[in-house]
Amino acid sequence: MKQKLRWGVLGCANIAIHSVIPAIKNSETSVVLAIASRGIEKARSTAADLGIERAYGSYEALLQDPEINVVYIPLPNHLHKEWTIKAAKAGKHVLCEKPLALNQEEAREMVGACKEAGVKLGEAFMYRYHPRYERIKEILKSGEIGTICGLHGTFTFNNATDKDNVRYRAEWGGGSIYDVGCYPISAARYLLEREPEAVTVQTFFSPEHDHVDMMVSGLIEFPENIGVTIMCGMWAHFQNTLQIVGTKGKIDIPNAFIVNSDLGGDFKVTVDGETRTEPSKELNQYTIQVDEFAQSIIDGTPPRFPSEDAIKNMKVIDACLLSAKNKQRVLLT
């Protein structure tokens, strides 16, 4: 058996405990060697619960472990830059949660630090590793639904009563654009294979939640007159959808970003009034993400999604936040 990459996890966030750590443990390429928290007791109890060999009472201590090859960073958004750069300087490859940073300048600094250190940096957009998205791109490029006219993406949920949640700390990078709006933004850029020209965003900033953006509706203008509308929020009925409309048909993805046994990955293609279902195998897209990122490290090959993509995505997020704040159309070109 080939030697597996040894991962360290900085923090005990829910996304790490319930999604990414199980994904690493189930992967073909990797093992979880250590987890760190700001206190040793939390780290030890989490390690015991998850069967992780080593626990550290500080993030610095984990980075000093010479046997760790890769770190996963699920920390609040405002800590991504600091710990990505520290991990890079410690010689660790980094898979960092989305959004990579608080703005494009931070993202550019993080990418530069990782390149200088000779380590790889990945942004954890797990949805795009699911093979159904390659199938969707095949359909789009085939011309089956005609010329693309527009996309509509939603990602909303209602967690408004949990007012101590890190999502509701403005200085920590809270808000729905950072948390879930980044997904349809990323998906539109990925599927259209081009960058937008302008954004206009209408937002509800909640005084009850440190004035973060709790509900967002936006228009993102792409070249060739393609309009992408997005809706994201943290005080709304749960939605997780993407629709692509063409001159001859459309593609509907009912569970566009979150996929599990309850939320299947099938999507529908409608052409000239006839609809078919494109089946999707039950796959763990977190595990696929881990294996693909790890394999690029093992093979020394460029990752399918270069870290520079995160800078481009942050540029759009920056424009959305500026548009929301100033209630104006923001040009990106």
Give me a quick take on this structure.
Keywords: Oxidoreductase. Residues 133-251 form the GFO/IDH/MocA-like oxidoreductase domain. This protein has helices at residues 14-25, 40-50, 59-63, 80-89, 104-117, 132-142, 176-192, 285-299, 308-326; strands spanning 5-10, 30-36, 54-56, 70-73, 93-97, 121-124, 148-158, 198-206, 212-222, 226-233, 235-246, 249-253, 267-271, 274-278, 330-331.
Notes on the structure:
With 333 residues, the chain is of the alpha/beta class. It has 2 domains: 5-127 and 287-305, Rossmann fold (3-Layer(aba) Sandwich), CATH 3.40.50.720; 128-281 and 314-331, Dihydrodipicolinate Reductase, domain 2 (2-Layer Sandwich), CATH 3.30.360.10. The chain has 9 helices and 15 strands. Helix 4 packs parallel to helix 5 (104-117). It is globular and about 55 Å long.
What key attributes describe this structure?
9-stranded mixed beta sheet, Dihydrodipicolinate Reductase, domain 2, 6-stranded parallel beta sheet, Rossmann fold, 9 helices, 333 residues, alpha/beta, 2 domains
